[in-house]
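User: My collaborator sent over this chain with a note saying "see what the structure looks like." That's all I know about it. Can you take a look?
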Amino acid sequence: MASQDKLLTRIGGLLRQAESTDNEHEAEAFLAAAQKLATRSAIDLTVARAHIASRERRPVPVQRVIPIGEAGKRGLRTYVQLFVAIATANDVRCDVTRTSTTVYAYGFDSDIDTCESLYTSLLVQMVRASDHYIKSGSYRSATAEKIVVESRFGRKVQRKVQAPVAAVTARLNFQMAFAERIGRRLAEVKAEVEADAVRADASANGDIAAAGTALALRDKELELVDFYTSTSEARGTWRGPQASAGYSAAARRAGDRAGRAARLNNSPELGAARGRLTRGAGDGSAP
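Assistant: Without extra context I'll predict from the sequence alone. Here is the result:
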């Protein structure tokens, strides 16, 4: 527990450094460093788990309830999308309530801690960046394709028209692109760190050690799959946020830029209500 607390303190220090800089390149470097530290620690814990079967208490996967927001609050689906993107890069599986008010996270404690820390910081950045984009009014110069239904000779006919982008459409598209970019950035860091770990073991201790690291990572994945399969009561698929009000390429580009330059901040947890479940990140739903 002490080593886990020390890890979280180190990650928190990187988050504060990211928060304090106005240089987007420094902010991105601190984000990458925080993710590398978290991922590297997860790898070390995984390798350790493969060698401590004789210990009295062996780390095992757990389920944790993650509050997202109150029922009816706008934007909850993009909040969930952000959490799921972070979770995917940190070996955590998710189920999502149909109301998007709650995520049920499945993984090892240290991995879920990392997800919550990153989510708390990045959520504030996403909301602030989208607020700034909307308040700037730049979305008003764009148009979005919209389907309208008309009555012609007693028949309903659909046609596509170009309509001004509404603020709610722009915000939704912005946040979706932000979350997608964060997911890609963290996934790239995860793949890089895992490959480096295998290469480092091969260089220092030979191919057998490298194979052991790769095997430990695979064992961790299988253990999590088994735990999730036996624990989750979800059915169906969480399909993520849908820009049903329209698509805005300009808002997507702005959200992607913000995701590339995201700083990490701290934010209080959001309250949430339990509801029906759907699986996140390709997983399924349950009552």
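A starting point for your reply to your collaborator: Residues 2-279 form one domain.
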